[in-house]
């Protein structure tokens, strides 16, 4: 097995267990509950979930999305987050290889998955998740700079974080209904990591996020699934735009560099 394949496999397995943890984060952080205690329990019968029923993706499929004891329905969000995080970690490993950038971007992507889920379910971006994501990925990018000596990238990331935070802060001041303060904090974290990849990545990320938001809103309004006053979970689009840009933004960034505006 080559080193690249080993990294991809290890990343997929890590993604499954991190995804399982993210499900706990999504459920408990908005309620202000502890992440470590008590152990996960069935929302229907309150029975503690046994280790064999807590295997990522597999247990949900074997039990067909129901509790072993009371048959209560278990949301498909659980296996989707687990499999999705595994797929994203694998893609990050392929993109960044054996470097400190891989765990740094993994931390960023994992935080975005959790934030997108909470925003989708509750129109909320808990500051605890945003801060932990920014500090964890920022620290790992710091280690990357220390080992590679590429401190300039970190400086660009810091500048992009400040600019994104500032712009979103102004928009929030002008009209808090456009975007909440959670979006302002998240924009800073996104600016840091995308800016570390390059200022053009930060630009692409926010453009893709807003484009996806506009397309989704047009579709939902056009098909009558949404009213004009219905709030949009903007954090979901910021997260999606960032993930797409981190994994697939390189060709666009290269095009922009060879065709200056
Ligand atoms: Zn149950």
How would a crystallographer describe the biggest sheet? none
Computed CA radius of gyration, to the nearest angstrom: 19 Å
> Mean of residue pLDDT?
93
Shape: globular
Secondary-structure element order, N to C: HHHHHHHHHH
User: So how many helices?
Assistant: 10
Whole-number tally of structural domains:
2
**Count of distinct strands:** 0
Distance between the termini: 45 Å
Indicate the low-confidence ranges by residue numbers. Answer: none
Strand content: under 5%
Estimated helix fraction: over 70%
How would you describe this structure to a colleague?
Helix 1 (3-28) packs parallel to helix 4 and helix 6 (151-174) runs antiparallel to helix 7. The model has no long low-confidence stretch (mean pLDDT 93). It is built from ten helices and no strands. Helix content is 70%, strand content 0%. The chain is mostly helical. The longest helix has 26 residues, at 3-28. The chain has two domains: 1-98, no CATH class; 100-261, no CATH class. The protein binds zinc ion. Residues 42, 44-45, 47, 67, 69-70, 72 line the site of zinc ion.
Entry summary:
The chain contains ten helices and no strands. It is mainly α and 261 residues long.
Question: Helices and strands in order, then pairings?
Answer:
Layout lengths: L2 H26 L29 H5 L14 H20 L4 H22 L4 H22 L2 H24 L6 H17 L1 H24 L11 H15 L1 H9 L3
Helix pairs in contact: 1-3, 1-4, 3-4, 4-5, 4-9, 5-6, 5-7, 6-7, 7-8, 7-9, 8-9
Bound molecules: zinc ion.
């Amino acid at each position: 097995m080559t080193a690249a394949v080993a990294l991809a496999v290890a990343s997929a397995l890590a993604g499954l267990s991190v995804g399982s943890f993210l499900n706990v984060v999504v459920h408990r952080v908005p309620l202000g509950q502890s992440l470590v205690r008590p152990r996960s329990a069935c929302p229907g019968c309150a029975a503690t979930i046994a280790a064999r029923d807590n295997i990522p993706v597999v247990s949900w499929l074997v039990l067909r999305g129901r509790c072993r004891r009371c048959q209560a329905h278990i949301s498909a969000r659980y296996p989707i987050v687990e499999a999705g995080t595994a797929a994203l970690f694998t893609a990050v490993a392929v993109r960044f290889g054996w470097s400190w950038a891989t765990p740094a971007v993994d931390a960023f992507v994992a935080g975005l998955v959790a934030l997108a889920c909470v925003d989708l379910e509750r129109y909320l971006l808990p500051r605890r998740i945003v801060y932990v994501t920014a500090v964890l990925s920022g620290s790992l990018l710091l280690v990357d700079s220390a080992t590679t000596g590429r401190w300039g990238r970190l400086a660009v990331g810091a500048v992009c974080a400040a600019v994104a935070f500032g712009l979103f802060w102004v928009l929030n001041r002008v009209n808090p209904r456009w975007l909440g303060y959670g979006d302002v904090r998240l924009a800073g974290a996104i600016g840091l990591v995308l800016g570390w990849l390059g200022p053009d990545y930060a630009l692409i990320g926010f453009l893709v996020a807003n484009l996806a938001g506009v397309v989704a809103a047009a579709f939902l309004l056009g098909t009558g699934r949404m009213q004009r006053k219905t709030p949009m979970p903007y954090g979901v689009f910021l997260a999606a735009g960032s993930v797409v840009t981190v994994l697939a933004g390189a060709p666009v960034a290269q095009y922009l560099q060879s065709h200056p505006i």
